[in-house]
Design goal:
342 residues, alpha+beta, Beta-lactamase, elongated
């Protein structure tokens, strides 16, 4: 082999080997410098971090039970008070209240459906029938109605003679304001008698009354009559304008009116006979309006009147504390008996 060929062969073998060695040495130096700590410092070990599950929060204690105390409403207290007054009175007492104003119009009845002696409260539907006839044009305030001997009964006036006649207005005023019996008898006869009076009373809701004979009624029936009138069912404003003045500032103001403040308007009809005292009233003051009927059996007159005044005062205390609200209501009128003219 020639010398030149041998030198070429060495280059081909040696150069690659030298290059490979240089690469290996460089890699080793790089690896050594990347893991060696700086001079003078020992390698630092990082502690192994162990993640522990978070501690569970203690369970919340259950909330203590809530005790709700429902205080009795004002109406509940009124009901309880009236029941107590009636139950401890020593007599038999019936009370019927019907509200005509306020956000809610509630009724209350203590023995209100029981039957009591009507006494002169039969004159209330009688005068309502008269008012409706006048409002409808079937009768006139100036009509002359004449006395007959069968009409006589003790009362306020003594000027009844055979053939004597009185205007309807005169007889109505005597019947309503003074509760005169003879005047009422004349009006009943011209209305058509006791049957006509009872038909009229039942047509306006007095379904549990038997007026005149045996002359019984209930507090609820008396209230129903006054409610029907107040709501315009018995001839509307024209009938009210004629009727209410007759029943206001009467000769007997010792019952329901006696429990009310001065200035309150009370259109009412009392009934009184030994052992039986009644009062049925439409009470109004501003926008406060309600009907209250009270019947009492078994007490003397003075005790019964005082009891009714006490009941009236308790009802007023409640009603005057309620929000004022009254909306007029108008409904069809019931039929009225045909006028029996003479």
């Amino acid at each position: 082999m020639r010398g030149g060929d041998r030198r070429a062969l060495r280059r081909l073998v040696i150069y690659p080997i030298v290059a490979l060695l240089l690469i290996l040495v460089g890699n080793a130096a790089y690896a050594s410098s990347s893991v060696s700590p700086p001079p003078g410092k020992a390698p630092t070990r990082q502690p192994l971090r162990v993640t522990r599950p978070a501690a569970l929060a203690p369970a919340a204690k259950p909330a203590p039970p809530v005790t709700t105390i429902l205080a009795p409403s004002g109406f509940d207290r009124l009901s309880a008070d009236l029941a107590l007054i009636a139950g401890t009175s020593g007599g038999r007492v019936g009370i019927s209240l019907q509200e005509l104003s306020g956000p809610r119009r509630t009724s209350l009845s203590v023995n209100g459906g029981q039957s009591f002696v009507a006494a002169s409260t039969y004159k209330l539907p009688l005068l309502m029938a008269e008012a409706q006839q006048i409002a409808s044009g079937q009768a006139r305030p100036s009509d002359l109605l004449c006395y007959a001997p069968g009409d006589a009964e003790d009362g306020w006036f003594m000027d009844y003679q055979p053939g004597s006649c009185f205007t309807r207005d005169q007889l109505a005023l005597r019947t309503g304001r003074y509760s005169d019996n003879t005047a009422a008898h004349i009006l009943v006869r011209y209305l058509g008698g006791a049957d006509a009076l009872n038909r009229y009373a039942k047509s306006m809701g007095m379904t549990n009354s038997a007026l005149w004979t045996p002359n019984t009624t209930t507090p609820d029936d008396l209230s129903q009559a006054l409610v029907s009138e107040a709501l315009g069912r018995l001839g509307g404003a024209a009938a009210q304008a004629w009727l209410y003045p007759i029943l206001t500032h009467t000769a007997t103001e010792r019952a329901i009116p006696a429990g009310l403040p001065a200035g309150v308007t009370v259109a009412h009809k009392t009934g009184s006979m030994p052992g039986a005292e009644n009062d049925a009233a439409y009470v109004r003051n501003g926008r406060i309006a309600y009907v209250l009927s009270i019947t009492v059996d078994g007490l003397d007159e003075g005790t019964a009147w005082s009891l009714m005044a006490r009941i009236s005062a308790r009802v007023w205390q409640y009603e005057s504390s309620r929000p004022d609200f009254a909306a007029p209501v108008s409904v069809p009128s019931p039929s009225i008996p045909p006028q029996n003219r003479h």
